[in-house]
Amino acid sequence: MSTPPGPTPDPPSDVRERIGARALATLAASSPRHGALLEMPGLRERVARVALASDFAIETLRRQPALLEHLAQADPGPLPEPVLDPARPPDWPAQLRQYRTAMSTRLVWRDVLGLDDVDATLAGSTRLAEDCLRLALEAVEGEFAERHGVVRDAGGTAQRLVVFGLGKLGGAELNFSSDVDLVYAYPHDGESDGRRALAAEDYFARLGQRLAKLLDEMTADGFCHRVDLRLRPFGNAGRVAWSFAAMDQYFQREGRDWERYAWLKARTVAGDIAAGEAWLETLRPFIYRRYLDYTALDGLRTMKAAIVAEMQRRDMADDLKRGPGGIREIEFLVQSLQLIRGGRESSLRGRQLLPALQALVDAGQVAPEHGLNLARAYCFLRRLENRVQMLRDAQTHALPGSDEDRQRLALALDYAGWDALQQDLAQCRAGVSAEFDALLVPRRGEAAPDALESYWRALPEGGEPQVLADSGFGDAAAADASLRDFARGNGVRALSDAARARLDRVVPALLGAAARSAQPDAALRRLLGLLQAILRRASYLALLDEQPSALARLVDVLARSALLAERIAAYPLLLDELLDTRVAGAMPDAAAMRAACAGAVQAQGDDPEAALRALNEVRLALSFRIALATLDRRQPAEDSARQLATLADAVVLEVLGMADAEVTHAHGAMPGGRFAIVGYGSLGGRELGFGSDLDLVFLYDADPAAMSDGKRPLEPARWYARLAQKIVALLGAVTSAGRLYETDMRLRPDGGKSLLVSSLASYADYQLQRAWTWEHQALVRARQVAGDASLCADFGQVRARTLGQTRDVAVLAGDVGQMRQRMRAELDRSDAARFDLKQGAGGLVDLEFLLQFGVLAGSVDVAALLEPRDTPGLLDALAGCGWLDGEDANALHRAHAVLLEAGLACTLDRRPRLATETEAITVARADIGRVVERHGLGFDPPGVGR
């Protein structure tokens, strides 16, 4: 027997007219005042539109006749707050409930009539809840003070309840008819000072319960706000109110991943706001880990699994919050990325979803188009959720079941009917689900080949080495031995079950990636060193497990760069950089590097050890980015060398500030004293390499009779010697992030026999009267790096006078040639198969000596030669004055770029700068040699020809 068809739904126009007419008739019949108001032009139409969306609003208007007159204004503002009379507690529930329903009706009115967007409605719902909490708390606080007095701590300071709002209340994005997630706390233990004294815990627990009842209890006027206290420590089994000290202990010992997620949005919403916000600052390390935190995903997946299980038990296809592609999935996506990255990037720690999503887009963690789509979906779903709740003020997230309610919902949102709304909703939810699944489903990266996975799981006793040979490893026996040693090592055996499960997923994937790399055997050796270093760091195993892109990128980098392999193994925090999308973008400029270094130091306050570690971490991260750009050939080698020098400048500037502060603290300031740091060599020439040391010279200027003004005063020579020693010590100090730089002080006047710091006068005298020609050559690349601006300018004048002296060009050529011959004989490591890129004939030092000779020979007539310190700048200056012809200058530019790139490539792979000659290197050597000979410089030792 067939089922008879159901009733045919009314046409949209009939539904709209019938609902509107019924509402107007109800209001007109409820009071003469309503009947008169409804004669106002346009008001009937507005009321009819509101009636289509909300039975609740019409019922409130019927019960509160004065409300319609207020809403009839063009832009109706908030209503006056009720005054809760301390002498009439029985009246409080009705006052709060009537105020809440009136203000909620105002929110419906403004939303339906287009006066507010969804953000304004969420903010309005939040403000309403906060206002009701404040009014109710102030009332019950007065009641308790009358009965029990005020709680005071051991020092006699009065204590107030602190009310934390979690969830959407904390995020200031409360939906229309939502419960409020509250946690009660108080700053310090103590006792109330009234005749019926209570301990702080009992006092605030009773106060909190009274507050919840005043808001939550159902009366003839309904409820004010539903209160949920289950997010407090230990949930319903825990005490109602907690001291801050007890909360601290709980989160240190018991805090779980879901609580990190819950407290991410926490905000103090009532009571002692200042105390609550200050305590939340102390909770930040619990919520946000210091580095990228992929261990959080397991906890988030557990939460997601519970939601999925609930959806399977109950059909939640129509649930806008918990159903597929619903609001909670967007929240999970955003908040999980906040938890993972927020410890490293403070801009991601916001409480509100849409600003946090935009911050993730700005940080490069969410693609702009995906961020825009998620934001639109969120606004769409939240507006729809609000409208579902506005219909009858019900705490529901499910789409209505009746055809009429669905039709009303669609029409009130300006759709032609339910089918059109449902089509948009389905499209929105599909997009959300796709984004969500890409993040939080168990990783579905490239599966490890079965053979490698089986081989690894059989170790250390089983496993066939032939699997490694078949996969592409050249020395399979050595690789097999290394893997067996690793598998039987204490580090692997000590892993927890969860960490071992991660390792068993990660290692086969790493083996497969290494086998496909350019150097499988080298990649495997370096990978095992890294794995050994991170076995006890669950967050880094989790990172590689969760991020196949990071795993593949890691293997690629390790296969191509022994230097970066060593650095990542020594400092696993650099793994974070592999996931930072900005690593492939534009490199930071000098100002950004200075700001990053300064910010790292300043963030540590008065802790110099922490400041030095933080500065080291910034240097590591930035130099790592430069190295990756060089390795990937995303920028010329000359740019990388210049950036490394710029980074060193920024670090030295911060170290000078730290050292000056320490010496001043110990010995006082030096009145009228000036200090400067001069960079020589590759630092001065802005052509620093990876791992290069810094050639530094320290200068000072002060009245010899002066004394520092501290408790342990020093004369200038000793004061500035202490400062220089402190700078060298800080640059070379070993921290958990390594050391900043090795320093070389041998280029100071008289070399290692002299004092560490020179007065400006003695330095000038030495340069002008006693310095050798090779020291003037070194001065060509010297530049002021940090220190007093006027002393740096004075140094520049000494340098200009020294380099600009009149010289006998023939004698100069002989001096330069003899020094180069001696260096070539002692330092050139070229052999029949390889060329020494730096010291070999036609190498970088030949080019440096050529340019230094040109500056020393020509600067007496051409002052412009004194300005540049870098090789490209010197080439341009010498070509500009005619010392080099244009063709030679262009050839030397190309030669410099070729040799510098080859040298940095050797450094990145931890090889000496000895290269097998390529056609480009041969041409570069020939061009340098030709120009050297053209200028009459004899760089070859006697009897040695090219």
Automatic annotation (TrEMBL):
Instruction: Establish whether keyword Magnesium is in the entry.
Output: yes
Q: Which GO terms describe its molecular function?
A: ligase activity; nucleotidyltransferase activity
UniProt superkingdom: Bacteria
Q: What keywords would UniProt list here?
A: ATP-binding, Ligase, Magnesium, Multifunctional enzyme, Nucleotide-binding, Nucleotidyltransferase, Transferase
Where are the annotated segments for Adenylyl removase?
Answer: 1-443
What EC identifiers does the entry list?
2.7.7.89, 2.7.7.42
Query: Which reactions does this protein catalyse?
Result: [glutamine synthetase]-O(4)-(5'-adenylyl)-L-tyrosine + phosphate = [glutamine synthetase]-L-tyrosine + ADP; [glutamine synthetase]-L-tyrosine + ATP = [glutamine synthetase]-O(4)-(5'-adenylyl)-L-tyrosine + diphosphate
Q: Where is this region: Adenylyl transferase?
A: 453-946
Q: Kindly give the CDD domains that the UniProt entry links to this protein.
A: NT_GlnE_GlnD_like
Q: Which co-factors does it depend on?
A: Mg(2+)
Query: Which segments constitute the PII-uridylyltransferase/Glutamine-synthetase adenylyltransferase domain?
Result: 302-439, 819-901
First-tier enzyme category under EC: transferase
Protein's UniProt keywords contain Flavoprotein: no
Quote the Pfam families the UniProt record gives.
Answer: GlnD_UR_UTase, GlnE
Q: Which residues form the Glutamate-ammonia ligase adenylyltransferase repeated domain?
A: 45-279, 552-795
The record's annotation in NCBIfam families points to: PRK11072.1
Which purpose does this protein serve, as stated in its record? Involved in the regulation of glutamine synthetase GlnA, a key enzyme in the process to assimilate ammonia. When cellular nitrogen levels are high, the C-terminal adenylyl transferase (AT) inactivates GlnA by covalent transfer of an adenylyl group from ATP to specific tyrosine residue of GlnA, thus reducing its activity. Conversely, when nitrogen levels are low, the N-terminal adenylyl removase (AR) activates GlnA by removing the adenylyl group by phosphorolysis, increasing its activity.
Q: Which family does it belong to?
A: Belongs to the GlnE family.
Supply the name of the protein.
Bifunctional glutamine synthetase adenylyltransferase/adenylyl-removing enzyme
Encoding gene, per UniProt annotation: glnE
